[in-house]
Design a protein that fits this description.
Length: 377
């Protein structure tokens, strides 16, 4: 359950002024036509109602339903004594924020039933007053019926989206972990035995240098041959890595942006930029993270992806025309933190600027992206 609204709910679609009017209206109904005793009783009932409303948001577990029940009783009393039915909207708003399915439907059904019954009884007690308010009473009843269910559905959808996002992050972490384990196993199986052999033969060659130079030379040749075989197997292992190609990621980025109704523009030719598998994989993951942030947080209508290569650095620039970034989010966001860690591993840098939107620039030294498939050991 979320924290108490402080009387005014934090909902962008609900006007503060309308909410204040609903808070003031019961006092008008009480003061306009009743004796001082009734006025005092009415004020006490209203203050008691809002006190229960506050405790409802502060309570946990079963106590929540107790305070909601008190609110329902006070709704009925206010309707029958003063002809004021609109406190039921406050209760309806709170019921919509109940997370437990069974508790929600029980409170939802009881609230609708008690509200309708009290309104029917009110027509017998305050016939003229209720007839003059009939259109507003109908609107209030519609609000009591629709408001809780709408809020409950929206909250449930937000929870599901949050759980889905958490599940996606978890799956991504598990995939990365599994990939690391696979690479570790492959490296161990590929290099472990051969490196051990190289170590043993090196020790043997060192002992034979003075005693038997010819045999020492033979052992050194075996070491060189073993190292060549190990290097070949490592290259085959790297070639089989399930890396994300930059060109493929750019295609997915275009699809994501179009689905989000954000105009997409690519500057630069990805095919003209050659880099090792590791560097291209890191750049592709960073591009994915940057575009995901644009879609989630920027509220932009256009996104530009620019690929630049000069004599010194390779640059990936992602620009949007959105609302910009929050400083705390930019510094502490887990996605951006991970992006920085990956780029720093390649001796690169990540810079973020806010100017008519957000501009993210990733720079990697050309020495890292130089000579794709280099033959150096």
């Amino acid at each position: 359950m979320q924290t108490w609204y402080s009387i005014i709910p934090k909902s962008p679609w609900l006007s503060i002024y309308i909410w204040i009017i609903f808070c003031i209206m019961p006092f008008f109904f009480i003061v306009r036509a009743f004796s001082p005793l009734y006025v005092g009783l009415g004020i006490v009932l209203i203050l008691l109602y809002f006190l229960c409303h506050k405790f409802s948001f502060q309570s946990k577990s079963g106590l929540v339903y107790m305070w909601i029940s008190f609110q329902m009783v006070l709704n009925i009393v206010m309707t029958l004594l003063f002809g004021y039915i609109y406190l039921s909207l406050f209760t309806a708003l709170f019921i919509g924020n109940i997370r437990q399915t069974v508790g929600f439907y029980i409170m939802y059904g009881l609230h609708i039933g008690f509200t309708v019954l009290s309104i029917v009884a009110g027509y017998f007690i305050f016939l003229e007053l209720f007839l003059s308010q009939t259109p507003f009473i109908i609107i209030a009843v519609i609000g009591v019926v629709l408001l809780p269910f709408t809020l409950y559905t929206r909250n449930k959808q937000e929870n599901l989206e949050s759980e889905l996002e958490t599940a996606k992050d978890r799956i991504s972490e598990l995939i990365i972990h599994e990939e690391r384990q696979r690479i570790a196993r492959d490296l161990h199986d590929t290099l472990g035995q051969k490196l051990s052999m190289i170590g043993l033969k090196s020790d043997l060659a060192a002992r034979l240098v003075e005693k038997n130079p010819q045999q020492a030379i033979s052992e050194i040749k075996d070491i060189r041959q073993t190292a060549s075989i190990a290097l070949k197997e490592v290259r085959e292992l790297v070639a089989d890595m399930r890396a994300v190609r930059l060109e493929e990621e750019l295609f997915r980025v275009e699809q994501i942006l179009r689905a989000a109704e954000i105009e997409y523009e690519l500057i630069g030719d990805p095919q003209a930029i050659q880099m090792p598998v590791l560097a291209e994989n890191v750049i592709s993951m960073c591009l994915k993270e940057a575009v995901t942030n644009v879609v989630k947080h920027s509220h932009a209508s256009k996104c530009i992806v620019e690929l630049v290569r000069n004599e010194n650095v390779f640059m990936l620039v992602v620009k949007d025309n959105g609302v910009g970034y929050e400083e705390t989010f930019a510094l502490n966001g887990s996605g951006l933190k991970g992006m920085r860690e990956r780029i720093e591993f390649l001796n690169g840098s990540v810079d973020i600027k806010k100017a008519q939107g957000t501009e993210l620039m990733i720079c990697i030294p050309v020495t890292i992206t130089h000579q794709k498939g280099s033959e150096e050991v």
